User: Fold this.
Amino acid sequence: MSTTTAAAPPAIKPKDFLGIDHLLSDEERDIRDTVRAFVNDKIVPDVGDWFEAAEIPAAELAPALGKLGVLGMHPTGYGCAGASATAYGLAGLALEAGDSGIRSLVSVQGSLAMYAIWRWGSEEQKQEWLPRMAAGEAIGCFGLTEPDAGSDPGAMRTRARRDGDDWILHGQKMWITNGSIADAAVVWAQTDEGVRGFVVPAGTKGFTTQDIHKKLSLRASVTSELLLDDVRLPGSAMLPETNSLRGPLSCLNEARFGIVFGAVGAARACFEAALDYAGERIAFGKPIAGTQIQQLKLARMATQVNQGTLLALHLGRMKDAGLLRNEHVSMGKLANVDMALDVARNARQVLGANGVTLEYPVIRHMNNLESVVTYEGTADVHALVVGGALTGIQAFR
Assistant:
């Protein structure tokens, strides 16, 4: 009888405990590593200061992000990368490991504003806006949410009416990322023909913005109110390929998919900060990493981050195979954002008093995630979407 000796399994890598890197293609790892290097070089050194000052140098960042190739990664043509859904997700993971505000800038630009024009716009609109937006030469925003119409966009009050060959828009949009710095806003409105989208260039008469201040979350991000006071637009400003909520909701689903990955990035950054800190912080004569209570926290965080990464990667593979449904994305956002919040809170405990300073990333990520758990659909709404899929009963309709 012959015997064979199996090769010994590779050593455990604390920051890739399950060896998930081996599940990625060479191209996917290259994209992830390229974005991670950009974030470590261009974002991490300064983002704490941006967060404290409630500002972001978008005018400098947008062209750099365009050169990196992450603005409008998944659409094809018009200067867009045409990357896989999984590659786009991995880029979002690396970006949000820097800060949720950076991933939000990229997500709103690519998954909302650009995707709306690419999927529902005219050829003229695509030629006019997409190449410049992909390069970061023009910034976009997405006007759907209103003060009284968040989780229920069908209740929007913004209206558009025909006036000859033109359209007249009147209404208000709220909590709009990139709003005051955008060169163009994709604005959704009720019309006699259904819900329509319009590309509203900055500077159009009657279109103004004002920033929302005193935020304690997503501070390294511009959040604005859009005011439309009888804004006159030519007929060519309307997105011609949709006249229902299917239009904006399809864009939101693209953004939610990115959050499934992005939340893992925030959680990973918190876990790695806690792991490094626990190995360096000495208490009672030894590193706190050697205590049972801290090892319990670290083990739990590592498990959660690895589970969230596998879930995101699985949904990415499903999307690339054409098998992903909206309900799958809802489960992914619900699970991974809740996971990231739990990891951030445990990491803050590991860091003790240092956990509440911007010298470490944890409190910043923890605060940001309080916005991420709400935008692109609250946790409650996504739970109802999953519940409806499980039971066949729609609780909120």
